Amino acid sequence: MQENQIYSQQEQPLALPRTFISSVFGWMFLALTLTAVMAYFTATSEQLLGLMFNETGLSILGYVIIFSPFILVLVMSFKFDKLSGTALTGMLILYSVLMGASLSFVLLIYTAASVYKTFAITAGTFGIMALLGYTTKTDLTKFGAMLYMALIGIILTLVINFFLQSPRLDYIVSIIGIFVFTGLTAYDMQKLKKIGCSIEQDSESFRKTAIMGALRLYLDFINLFLFLLRFLGNKK
Fold first, then answer.
1. Category of 223 on φ-ψ map: left (φ > 0), alpha (ψ -120 to 50) or beta
2. What's the pLDDT tens digit per position in 134-160?
3. Contact 235, 118 (CB under 8 A)
4. pTM of the prediction?
């Protein structure tokens, strides 16, 4: 009896992060599935495409769909403490659907075969780096800080290049982006594992934090996919 209690106490710390990570990936896979379904539905619907685009380019609705996911991320991040688990769940679902609509251009520009190939490579790379982040004993905190600084640089460069339209600069940013989001996958996974070791299971905080963790990994995956697609995608 006493040996069983000791064994149970030893297993509990291991079970906590595993349960939390399982919940994180469950929400992440739900978000990715909604995004993929909505992207396909939008790309194959003339009515939806007609609402998003007009003769001059994006319509007002199109701009709303493109920029509203960014606003949702900010609200979820800065209002995390005040939002309930139900509210965060609804916002994650809405975010995933809107992202699917805004990413429908991928299926319009690139061939289906190259999109599937890039998705498979992204999934493999993401899985390897997530496993590395979960199992490594090396503290990735400083590494993560540098990656987030590089991410800020990428965002600023993309904004500048929106006006410059430099293919060479776009190429350089894409290469850096692949390395940044590959590294961030490992860093974010390690950080989520640490959170899973300390968070109270079956609590409201557990659910909310798992949703935000899923959002973080979702963003790593989507951005890695988009940067890889610039090199591996074949345009129609």
1. alpha
2. 999 999 999 989 999 999 999 899 889
3. no
4. 0.89
